[in-house]
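explain this:
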Amino acid sequence: MNSKVDVSDWADLRVFLAINDCQNLLAASDQLGMSQPTVGRRLTAFEKRLGVNLFARTGRRMQLTDAGNAILESARKMEREMNAIMRTVEGQAEGLCGEVTISATEGTGSQWLIPVLASLREKYPDISIQLNIDFRAADLLGREADIALRMGRPTQMDLIARKLTDIDFGIYASREYINKVGAVTELKDLEKLSWIRGLFGSTGQNLLLEFMSAKNLDCQVGMNTNSPAAQLAAVGEGIGAAIVSHRWAATVPNIVNLLPDILPYSVELWLVCHEDLRHSARIKAVADHIAEAATDDKGLFSIKSKGY
């Protein structure tokens, strides 16, 4: 292997790591924001400079060779060091301009956060937002995002967090569906419902099974989905009942809150960023704006609306 590898190879090491993580060129190109041919050319040039093949091509799948595996940990170490450098530089940024990447779950990010970002743009027109809707927790240490909105307090070291609000959940179904299956007036009536089960947030927490198990109730699942938006749409279409947040349920006109005196869950919403970025003016401005909006909208997250 050619030993002439220096810091200028970091850009190529990023390509190497992305291909290893994604296992194919197309996914790696999406992650890197490059075209697939460009990623392929960068890899070929890097391998030629090193004098070894780093990957074995099996169809579209890219698998590490022994040579690739030999440099993997060193590449990871360099990635961590470069990320630390970038966080330090970003943390010293004083201007209210540039890009801020926000990671959020589907319900919070695609619904509540959008008007918040609209007012942010009016206040700070030179700050641009990259909004990533994720089903998993973004790696803030790996700079997948500058700010993350997470359900539950983070425990990872090197992160700073502030609690925004509590998100309360209720049991919802459409009026049409309840008219068909009969009124729900007590807990035992929940057993006659067909349920739409979804995974909650980046943790994959299953609110429905936890709730029904805690109440010693049988649970008939008629539909599973990994999308909160699909779950809510299914409730609106009368497919069955589901546990959804009061805030999001309030956006659908034909669904009702069953047993409104029962509060199945309350989950904390936290704003999280890496501690190295806490002094970045633009990131602080975005974080403060989101926090202020959450305080103003606190009632939206807890209102028990549309009782049956």
Summary: Confidence is low (pLDDT under 50) at residues 2-8. The chain has three domains: 7-91, 98-165+268-299, 166-265. The first helix runs from residue 10 to 22.
